[in-house]
Amino acid sequence: MSLGENLQFLRKKENITQEQLAEQLGVSRQSISKWESDTAYPEMEKLLQLCKLFQCTMDDLMQKEISQIYVEDKSNYDRHYNEFSKFVSLGIGLILLGLSATMLVYGLNYFFEGEPLTEDFCGIIFLIFLVVGMAILILYGIRDDDFKKKNPHIVNFYQEKEIDSFNRKFSVMATTGISLFIINVILLAGFDAIFPQISGNEYLESFEMSFFFLIVSIATTIIVYYSTQKDKYDIEKYNQLNDKNSDTYKKSAMTCTVCGCIMLIATILYLIAGFVFNKWGMPSVAVFAIGGIGCAIASIIINFKKSQQI
Question: Which of 189, 139, 105 is nearest to 97 (CA)?
Answer without folding.
Answer: 105
